[in-house]
Write a structure and sequence with these properties.
4 strands, alpha+beta, 7% strand, Muramoyl-pentapeptide Carboxypeptidase, domain 2
Length: 227
């Protein structure tokens, strides 16, 4: 597979994206449908709130966070005052919850952020925060069920890349990755290729990112759980 900033040309059909809740890679759509069907059999309504996210959209999120237009969060998901941060501190704070454009796994169409629609109170706006998915969180039972499926090899290839805190990306229990397809994109992406993508793009804090790219690569790109 040749590396590109995103896999927009490999997505499922618009009709299938609408049925699933978000666009995903065409080879991920079937396994995702199967996982949803399994969930229904256990009383869960697994829905996708975010799937494919192209390079330009990720760049917009990154730039708006760098400009203070979107919240930058600490490790407990509390907003930070970015005016008190150095450029390096700001870059690493953004990376805790938002991927560097060009390095987001959502670019590949292999990643989905999921929730249990059966447990969602009417009118509740999903935040994708730890309180929703752990302990007594409303979506925790579905994620406990998913953990059991993954442990038994019955998750149709899905796993959690950010299952725990490894000193890089914050734990994201809602984030599932489809290993068979994602692995090909992982192998195609290198730190050199990522550097070329960043250098050529209109990305806020670019000089700081490139200065610390090796550390970013080690801590936030390849520092994940692997199935």
């Amino acid at each position: 597979m040749t590396f590109a900033p995103d896999a927009g040309d490999a997505l499922c059909s618009d009709a299938e994206a609408e049925a699933l809740g978000a666009p995903v890679h065409r080879d991920v759509a079937g396994p995702l449908r199967a996982l949803r069907d399994d969930g229904r059999g256990s009383g869960f309504d697994l829905r996708v709130i975010s799937g494919f996210r192209g390079f330009d959209r990720q760049r917009s999120i990154w730039n708006r966070k760098a400009a203070g237009e979107l919240a930058v969060l600490d490790s407990e998901a509390n907003p930070l005052d970015i005016r008190t941060l150095t450029d390096r501190e700001l870059v690493f704070a953004i990376l805790r919850w938002s991927a560097l454009p060009g390095a987001s796994r959502h670019h590949w169409g292999t990643e989905v952020d999921v929730y249990d629609a059966a447990a969602r109170p009417e009118g509740y706006e999903i935040e994708l925060i730890p309180e929703e998915v752990a302990g007594d969180g409303m979506f925790a039972p579905m994620h406990d069920w998913l953990d059991t499926r993954m442990a038994s090899g019955a998750s149709h290839g899905f796993f959690r890349p950010y299952d725990r805190d490894r000193g890089g990306v914050a734990p994201e229990r809602w984030h599932l990755s489809h290993a068979p397809v994602a692995t090909a994109y992982e192998c195609a992406l290198t730190v050199e290729r990522l550097g070329d993508v960043v250098a050529a793009a209109d990305i806020a804090l670019k000089e700081t990112v490139l200065e610390h790219l090796d550390e970013i690569w080690e801590r936030f790109v390849i520092n994940i759980n692997r199935p």
